[in-house]
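Suppose a colleague, Dr. K., hands you the sequence of a protein chain of 351 amino acids and asks what its three-dimensional shape might be. Before reaching for any lab equipment, you can write down a predicted structure in token form. Begin with the sequence itself:
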Amino acid sequence: MRRVAKLSAACIASAALALTATACGSTSSEEDSSSSTTDGGKGVKIGIAFDVGGRGDRSFNDSAARGADKAKEEFGGEIKELTAKSSDTEADREQRLSDLADAGYNPIVGVGFAYAASIGKVSAKYPKVSFGIIDSVVDAKNVNSITFTEEQGSYLAGVAAALKTKKNHVGFVGGVDTPLIKKFEAGYAQGVKDTKPGVKVDVQYLSRGTDLSGFSSPDKGKEAASGMLDNGADVVYAAAGSSGNGAIEAVNGVKGAWAIGVDSDQYNIPGLAKYKSSILTSMVKNVDVGVYDFVKSVHDGKPLTGVNNYSLAKDGVSLATSGGFIDDIKPQLDAAKKKIVDGTIKVKTTP
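The predicted structure, expressed as tokens, is then:
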């Protein structure tokens, strides 16, 4: 959920990267938690360094967890999970990754761009360990950079919003104004405008700069969405981690309004079941596929490295169809997807 920035050995050490933190699907946590599941030591030993919130965030981290779970089920072995604190420093992230490597876990996945600098450093110290980083690019021989075209999936979400709004007024709630989240905004707004130029798009970010609370404050998400609904919007797309759960709750309280979920198919998330009648669709980011592919490559003895970008053409991003609420506009969505895939539509990555 940010524009991917390639990290050279020099820039890895830059202080600026110490300011990066949660990815789109985060929830706040003040405790560094860990868990593990095993099958007696056989198979592959998977180390997962989650972003804040970890397994159970109903979005980004959960998607990564599904990929690891699938790999463990298929190949056997063990999963060790360590979860970030919202107060983490760069040293904390480096220690978390080093702890996994010292314990013999291979591969190790850093879930979210906050781990970019630390993976750059730790991977150099453990050249025989395969590392994966989600939502960023780290230039190292033993690192697999797993990236996504969030703007393309968000474009389709914008098409759906434009076709479903009855008030010609929609909204976008971003967690934090990082370049990654702006990819979501850019694609969404372009999809709306290309479909119906007259539709108004409200945009609000919940926090800015180094204040990362916008990813972990459902109350802020609810307040922002409520404000948009009060101002006349009837479709709200939130790319804001667990804050988006609050936005979905707000939309559910307004008859005829729609929410668009993010990262996971939020219609099918048990913790959001009471709101699912209001979840039009979700812009699904298939982090689970990226994680599974990476673990499989290590298991097969041919670890993926370099940049592996999961685009719309590769089903790396997609719109969920659960609930059947977008079935009636499928032809328009399919047409837009085709144009993106064949290059007729160039989706912006900045607003």
